Amino acid sequence: MAIFKKKQDLSIDNIVLPRHVGIIMDGNGRWAKKRGLPRSAGHSAGAKNFRKIIRYCSDIGIKHLTMYAFSTENWKRPDDEVQALMKLFKQYLEEALRDFQDDTIKLRFIGDITGFSPDIQSLMIDAQEGSKDRDGMVLNLAMNYGGRDELVMATKSIANKVKSGEIAVEDIDEKLISDSIYTAGQPDPDLIIRPSGEYRTSNFLLWQSAYAEYVIMDKLWPDFNFDDMNYALIEYAKRNRRFGGV
User: Fold this and answer.
1) pTM for this entry
2) Which residues are identified as catalytic?
């Protein structure tokens, strides 16, 4: 993969930015292992970088940002690692409520938040409610999220509407499905970035990413920086998006 060598080549001043960017934050554990540290140290480093990148995306004018924070499969990890992640989530939410009251970022959670402890659920609801009237970037935090799980949830919701007579089977179309998933009302992601060099979607935004452009980067998430973000945005701007046409 070609990487720009000069900082001036990474200027995004004259490019068209994507409306919606998704980021699969990956590589925290490997980052820690390379340094002889526990995996929890990698997650702490990744959380610090998460704060920097969301602020940068907001500052440069990204309108919607979806960050894959915790998947439905992540519960299978060792208990101590899951507990370390829960501690980081709680810390972030407490900071969001305490320190970012004058922020412009609108925070939303996508995924089944009922899987979390009552105190974390309460913090999530308070943080989302407290930011709902803001007019800045929409930050979707994918928490206990899985693309297949999302489609099952949407299917059940639509099936119940058919069962109750609210809609007919013939009313089911792409728009209805889009209106029934967690990101309803938001544009589909134009760009999805995957640090860590892995070539898979990992069950992330399966419906929404049908025509998203992917940029895979051989960079572990804690090391992902502003230049890497700019590189991905520039790569996106080069793409000829045909959406199935010619």
Assistant:
1) 0.92
2) 26, 74
